Known about the structure:
The complex is a heterodimer of chains A (about 230) and B (about 170). Chain A is mostly helical and about 230 residues long. Chain A contains eight helices and no strands. With about 170 residues, chain B is an alpha/beta fold. Chain B has a single domain, classed as Rossmann fold, CATH 3.40.50. In chain B, helix 3 packs parallel to helix 5 and helix 4 crosses helix 5. At the A-B interface, helix 1 and helix 4 of A face helix 2 and helix 3 of B.
Amino acid sequence: MTEPGLMRIVGLIVARELRLAVRHWDQVVQPLIFFVVVTTLFPLAISPSLNELRNIAPGVVWVAAMLASLLALESLFRPDVEDGTIEQWALSGQPLSLLLLAKTVTHWLLAGLPLVIMAPIVGTALGMPMSVWPVLAGSLALGTGCLSILGGIGAALTVAVRRGSVLLALLVLPLEMPVLIFGARAVDLAMHGEAVAGPLNLLAAMLLLCLALGPFAMSAAMRISLE
Amino acid sequence: MGQNGVGKTSLLRCVAGLIEPESGEIDWHGAPVRKEREAFHRQLAYLGHVNALKPDLSALENLHYSVRLRRDVERHEMLEMLARLQVSQCADLPARALSAGQKRRVAIARVILSGASLWILDEPITNLDRGGIECVEACMATHLRAGGSILTAAHQSLLTQHARVRVLELQ
């Protein structure tokens, strides 16, 4: 009996998640619609003046991205725990941390990457110059990666709690504050034409830390939730 | 065997490693399971109360994504197994369209295809009709004859003809 290698296992999980997403596309686009709608509301509520909007644009885009990623977290593990899939993963003889990381990476591809792609368009609507696009997209790519993994840990911890979504937000939002601060700061610095390497490097370091330790935390939290 | 709520499922989950025992040790082939958890899990197939089937995936896709976590499996193998459990007509239907008994049969197909030597089955014949129960019993007997082991919780006696079956009544 040949046992599959770890990369094939990751490929299998990613393929499974993508196939499920295609059949549940309504759930997949929900965070993206939320992101676009929230950022569109600000010019209506504050002022259509681009000068005023430009000042708040980095914060608005980043807060909306953070809340959109939080919105997507609720469905990260819950359906799979309820139907027994994750129980099977935990007993599959494969590292649960790797399986959950593969699932979280796919979740980022479906919930985080669309935000990264959409952000420059939304930013332009809020008066951001085109020169900021790379920093905005780069900071969001690094930041939403962190948010997905931090959120994954929270989701794994609260998945067994009924109505755990409030608890999930309370647990995850404080952990995500540094990501928000450095992400919005990078975009703000770029808009003023200053060097952005500092906050971007810190975001990249946070992402590496999350990638290195997050899967083990997710796996430990999930095993507690499965008991 | 035992009444509802006596702890059959908890015992099986404990043996499978989903719950830590409050006291005592679970051994497999003379070695404590907690030291070689992943190696033990590779030899184990678990069927719980829920069938672990995704409603939006077909029966075949469900088998593909779960069995391939453990070993390479060909499409014809999965089709043969579904035919053996008399659900080959459901192969390409989404799991949400299957009846409760058909879902159970697909879940049992997953257990058999996993190639594990120890099956832990929690009330495997739930929702099965008489034909289904006979079919599952035949699969279980084949597994035992091939040298495998089965630990199962049940409300009714299974494999009563088989000489090596031991019944533990929980109270």
